[in-house]
Amino acid sequence: MASTLVIVRHGESTWNQANLFTGWHDVPLSAKGEQEAAAAGHTLANEGLWFDTGHTSLLTRAVTTANLALGALGQPWLPVQRSWRLNERHYGALQGLDKKATTERHGEAQTKLWRRSYDVPPPPVATDDPEHPSSDPRYRLLAPDALPATECLKDVVVRVLPYWHDAVVPQLRAGLTVLIVAHGNSLRALVKHLEGIADDDIAELNIPTGAPRRYVFDERLRVVESGYLGDAEAVAAAAAAVAKQAGGG
């Protein structure tokens, strides 16, 4: 039975706008981000998409994006599951820092290693740091050792894939059309898995905000079709903007 998945990175947040490392820090969408979220919904409507279920992270920018997109699509009532496993990568001690200033201080090579390498995390935060998830009540029921003090993309893959296999795959096997609204790195982790991208190549993958990407699967959950929806030139420009956020590149 064929099935369809659409993934959407949340619209621009206020910290994206300010070019800050955000990670698990909870920030709202910017005005532009709200427009991107609604525009994603209109794009989905223009493609004739209609969803059976959805998933988001526990972070406000993803939740709001899903709400605005589904409202524009005409499905504000869609059942949506939320999980910390779809959260953005935790950027450790970089959270709240300016990306360009970090590049100027530590050099482009080191900053790119922290931002984009597969298995090198930034310096961690202490458990009593306000940026550690243990200070946030939404994670109070999770085991303390499940809460990251920092993460590399490899760590994100490890936490995203169990949710994919346990929550999303059964829905796709049932032939449902599924929407996931999450973050640049949690979606990079998922795309790496779906498209078989090598560890050394994943650094060059940039997922733009508010641009729906559709996957069509066959009955064995093999990808038979994939691609961004909407204006191809606008999507390419948005992906290029993501690549330049740290200065250089």
Provide the helix percentage. 25-40%
Number of helices: 8
Catalogue the unreliable spans: none
CATH superfamily: Phosphoglycerate mutase-like
Report the CATH topology name: Rossmann fold
What summary fits the major beta sheet?
A: 6 strands, mixed
Structural class: alpha/beta
CATH architecture: 3-Layer(aba) Sandwich
What series of H and E elements makes up the topology? EHHEHEHHHEHEEH
The strand count comes to 6
Please characterize this protein's 3D structure.
This protein is α/β, with parallel strands linked by helices. The chain has one domain: 3-Layer(aba) Sandwich (Rossmann fold). Helix content is 39%, strand content 12%. The protein is built from 8 helices and 6 strands. It has a 6-stranded mixed β-sheet with strand order 3-2-4-1-5-6. Strand 2, helix 3 and strand 3 form a beta-alpha-beta unit. The longest helix is centred in the middle third of the chain and has 21 residues, at 153-173. The N and C termini lie far apart (42 Å).
